Amino acid sequence: MTIKALTGRDWPFFQAWAAAENWRLSFLEQRLFQNQWRPYFHVLWKRGRRCGFVSAVSYKTSAWIGNLIVAPELRGRGYGSQLFEYVLARILRQSKMRKVWLTASEQGAPLYRKHGFATVDQITRWQAAGCAVAPQARILELDRLMACDRACWGESRASLLELLAADAYSLSSPGNLALLQAGIDFWQLGPWLAETPSPLAYKKVLGQARMMTPKAKQLLTDVLESSGATPDIATNRLQLPGFQSFDVPQLQARTGPAQRCHCPGQSRQHRITGAIENPSLSFCAYAHFFA
Q1: Is the peptide bond prior to 191 cis by the omega test (within 30 degrees of 0)?
Q2: Which of 105, 125, 139, 288 could tie 247 with a disulfide, CB 3.0–4.6 Å?
Q3: What's the rounded Cα separation, in Å, for the pair 58 and 101?
Q4: How does pLDDT run across 91-140, given as a tens digit for each residue?
C-alpha cells in the first residue's frame, strides 16, 4: 500500500466518486488542485488500484484537510483513516503549525474525535438562482480583501486569493467584503468577511451576488451560525426570495485552553470551548489547534 501525489489520470476517478456523493466542487477549486495545488492532493494505492483520495493545503501556521473519499466498494477497510493520518502527520511535522481545519461527513466524526477534534461552529449552505441578464464589469478590491482575510485567518493567504481573484468579483457593504467566484456549473460567494454582524449589510452582499450571477447559474454560499445571518435568511427577514438551504455542516476544532479565534468562510468570531454535538447535522467541519 502506497500514498502518492495526484496525477492527471487520477482526477477523473476522484470526480466520479465525488459526484456519486453529490459533492459540488467549484470550478476554481478543481483548477487549483489540477495545477498549482496538485502536490497537496494524495492518492492511496493498493495492488495497482486507487483506493482513496485526500487533500491537505498548508500555509505557514495553518492548514486545511479536505476531499477525503474512499472508493464506495472499499469502504470500512481503514483506507480513509490511513489517508487522514498520513496527511495529518505531514502537517504536524511543520514546526510553526498552529491550526488545522477540515470538513467531513458525520460518519467521519469518530475518526476526528479520536485525534482530538471538537465542534466550534455550524455552517449552512444556501443556494439561489442568478438574476444577471448581461455580463458586468469586473470589480476587484484585492488589497482590501487580502488585508481583511489576513486579520480574520491569522496569516496571509495572498497566493490563494490571487488565484481565486483571476475569475472573481469583489462585493462590499458597510463592514462587509466578499469575493464572488465565477464558475462553469455554479457561482460561489466566499470568502465573505464581516467586522460586525449587520442584517442590512448581509442583505446587500447577498443581493449584489445574486444580481451579478448569470440567470443560467446557481449561486452558492456557506454561512456560519456565529455570523447571525442564518436565521434572517431562513425566515426571509432579509427579504431575499429564492434562497434555500441544502447542506448543514458543523465546524469543529482540536483545542487546548479556550481561545479567541477567527475561522474560515463567512463573517464570524467565536470562542472555542470544546466539543459541541448536534446529531441532526449530516456534515461537520473541524479544526485542530496547537498551543
Answers
A1: yes
A2: 125
A3: 10
A4: 988 888 888 887 766 777 788 888 877 777 777 888 899 998 776 767 77
Cβ–Cβ under 8 Å, residues 112 and 286: yes
Query: Cα(107)–Cα(79) distance, rounded to whole angstroms?
Result: 14
Question: One-letter amino acid identity for 229?
Answer: A
Contact 98, 153 (CB under 8 A): no
120 burial type by CB count under 10 A (0-12 exposed, 13-18 middle, 19+ buried): buried
Strands (E), 174-262: 176-181, 186-194, 218-224, 244-247, 250-253, 259-261
The cell numbers describing 269, all together, are: 468570531
Question: HEC profile for 250-286?
Answer: EEEEECCCCEEECCCCCCCCEEECCCCCCCCCCEEEE
DSSP 130: -
Cα 9 from Cα 13, distance rounded (Å): 8
Total residues found in the chain within this entry: 291
What does pTM read for this prediction?
0.80
For the chain, helix, strand, coil in percent to 5 are 30, 35, 35
